[in-house]
Amino acid sequence: MFSIYGVTGPVFSGTLEEMNRVRAASRARAVRAILEDGEELGIEVGAGMAAGAHEAAVRAYRAMLPRDLERGPLYHAGQIMQTTVIRVSADDSVTHAWRTLRDHAIHQAPVLDDDGRLVGIVSERDLLTAINVDGGSIVEALDRRVRDVMTTPVVATAPITDIRRIAAVMIDHGVDGVPITNETGRLVGFVSRSDVLRAVVTDPPLSLWR
Predict the structure, then answer these.
(1) CA angle, corner 165, sides to 89 and 74, nearest 5?
(2) Which residues are CB-contacts of 118 (< 8 A; sequence separation ≥ 6)?
(3) Which of 43, 147, 148, 167 could form a disulfide with 90 if both were Cys (CB 3.0 to 4.6 A apart)?
(4) Is the C-alpha dihedral spanning 191, 54, 18, 75 positive or negative?
(5) 151 CB-contact burial (10 Å; exposed 0-12 / middle 13-18 / buried 19+)
(6) Total-model pTM
């Protein structure tokens, strides 16, 4: 089960497939808006061709796999997530958020509001839109809060979600980590790209992804 949280609270809750359908519908509406403005055509055709090529590649790969290949272990977010989560507040300054990431050697952090609710995620890339860094030190910063530069809404998921679906969200949404929330929407963990890769390389076989 995946959820999407924004500054106004939860805006979606459902399966990965349902979330992708909602995302596809949003893209279709955006494409229609472009067409109505008389801009370039062919966007959906190009996307379809790319999807077809991807599916053909997947089928070719599966055809090469041995028939008796044993399926590897299945991991869930709760098994690999970081339970001590470094987080920042939406009202923190961008300089404070940058130092928090640097001090803990991380590249992104969940963002919570004053009530402890997940409202976004902020990365080094986001913060660099408001600060100037030289040699690892801040030399100049705009008067911005985390809420001004964070990515929102943010996709989160439950501890029982398998990591293949989490990896798919990272790829599809272009994020390096996914917050993990419980049934009440409270942040209980975080799965980064490194956590997923560590699970894959630590316990072969790679048929985990089959």
Answers:
(1) 115
(2) 5, 110, 111, 112, 154, 156, 179, 181, 185, 187
(3) 147
(4) negative
(5) middle
(6) 0.71
| pLDDT (average), residues 153-176 | 92
Could you tell me the two tokens for 188?
Answer: 């209980």
Cα dist. 204→94, 159, 192 in Å? 40, 22, 19
Residue 178 token pair: 């996914």
The three-point CA angle 56-171-168 to 5° equals 75
Lowest mean pLDDT among 74-78, 101-105, 141-145: 74-78
Structure tokens at 107: 């590249």
Count Cα atoms within 13 angstroms, Cβ side, for 24: 10
DSSP state letter for 187: E
- Residues 130-146 have pLDDT tens digits of 999 888 788 899 999 99
Burial, 98: exposed, middle or buried (Cβ in 10 Å; 0-12, 13-18, 19+)?
buried
Using the structure block, give the residue that is written with the tokens 């893209």: 27
* Domains of the chain, first to last: 16-64 (no CATH), 77-209 (3.10.580.10)
Residue with tokens 């999407």, as numbered in its chain:
4
